[in-house]
Amino acid sequence: MPPFLLRSLRRLPKLLSHFGSPRVTSAMSLSTDTLTRPVSPDQTRVGWIGTGVMGLAMASHLLSAGYSLTVFSRTASKTQPLLDRGATSAASPRAVAAASDVVFLMVGYPSDVRAVTLDPTSGVLSGLSPGSVVVDMTTSDPSLASEIAASAEAVGCSSVDAPVSGGDRGARNATLSIFAGGNETVINNLSPLFKCMGTVRYMGGPGLGQRAKLGNQIVIASTMVGLVEGMVYAHKSGLDVAKWLEAISTGAAGSKSLDLYGKRMLDRDMAAGFYVHHFVKDLGICLSECQRMGLALPGLALAHQLYVSLLAHGEGGLGTQALILAVERLNNTCLNK
Questions:
Q1: Fewer beta carbons under 10 A from the terminal one: N or C of the chain?
Q2: What angle do CA 129, 132, 135 make, to 5 degrees?
Q3: Which Gene3D superfamilies has this protein been placed in (predicted)?
Q4: Judging by DSSP bridges, how do beta strands 102-105 and 133-136 pair with one another?
């Protein structure tokens, strides 16, 4: 056998390991690379898609921590505050992925998540290099999270579903609660990034981060109904509602919802930290999950209907504290500060 041919045959296994299909033969080794790759500002390129009320603040913390950031938003002007601080603009989710090791999403609806991640020509997974990670921080459908995780694994990448709770204040102050689903080792490896935004807690495999967030939304929905009903009762009974809120805030009725929204409602400040139309979306996903599971949660259903009534009045762009308007209308009253 000619010497050059013998040398080529000896190199064949190594060549195959480098150029074999990552979707089939080397997905496991690429996943291992994802698990062990260090995450730090000087080694990790970060991408961010979605710069709304929450996303803009969250991405800003990554810039402050020294990470290089490539950004995309359907409304290009919303990325300008990040560009002014040194971020780079990309023309599509795929372009963000091509320039990043870890890509975060913070978009509106499950349909947006699907398009941004799975579109074969412009989606994140079509542009990610093997061993990279996509992290969806949108509140979305658990089954979609599992689908994205499977699709990511098929191309030698990883996916984490990591929705958050804490509202606009938590996003600005980097005190968000982050519910993470996926590979625990990947999530632990990403902890330097998560710490820039809040506290991450591992919930389990793919989709369980989303299910944890849906449970969170169920609690918030009924808590908000109780809060606004109590406020309307206090008002109609002749109490000073501001003093009443202060009095109950340190007792068993105290809650994060009261702290975040009580004063805003009294001040008639309905600016969105979290949009009504997004909360209606979240509660709709919760109800679909409950129907699939055979669960009857009447408090959730009532809260959903009250928030839907805000949509009927054209108030979907207000914050979730606008629930007070729905209960006021039911009782033909209006709170005075």
A1: N
A2: 130
A3: N-(1-d-carboxylethyl)-l-norvaline Dehydrogenase, domain 2 (1.10.1040.10), NAD(P)-binding Rossmann-like Domain (3.40.50.720)
A4: parallel
Residue 102 phi, psi dihedral angles, 5° rounding: -130, 130
Specify whether 243 is catalytic: no
Burial class (CB in 10 A: 0-12, 13-18, 19+), 7: exposed
Neighbours of 154 (CB within 10 A): 13
Catalytic residue, chosen from 195, 213, 263, 281, is 213
* 3-state SS assignment for residue 244: helix
Per-residue pLDDT at 83: 97
| Residues forming beta bridges with residue 176, ordered by sequence position | 198
Q: Which two tokens stand for residue 9?
A: 């045959």
Count of C-beta atoms within a 10 Å radius of residue 201? 14
> Using CA atoms, how far apart are residues 55 and 49, in angstroms rounded to an integer?
8
Q: In terms of DSSP bridges, do strands 164-165 and 102-105 run parallel, antiparallel, or are they unpaired?
A: unpaired
Q: Tell me 123's DSSP state.
A: S
Tell me the one-letter amino acid at 32. Answer: T
**323-330 vs 208-236: helix crossing angle, rounded to 10:** 40
What are 30's two structure tokens? 């690429």
* 326 alpha carbon, distance to own chain's centre: 27
Mean pLDDT, the chain cut into blocks of 10 residues (337 residues total): 45 40 39 69 96 95 98 94 97 97 96 97 96 97 97 96 93 97 96 98 98 97 97 97 96 94 96 93 96 97 98 97 98 86
Q: How far apart are CA 155 and CA 170, in angstroms?
A: 34
Max Cα separation, the chain? 101
DSSP designation for 128 = P
HEC readout, 51-106: CCHHHHHHHHHHHHCCCEEEEECCCHHHHHHHHCCCCEECCCHHHHHHCCCEEEEC
Report the relative pairing of strands 164-165 and 176-181 from DSSP bridges. Answer: antiparallel
pLDDT of res. 14:
39
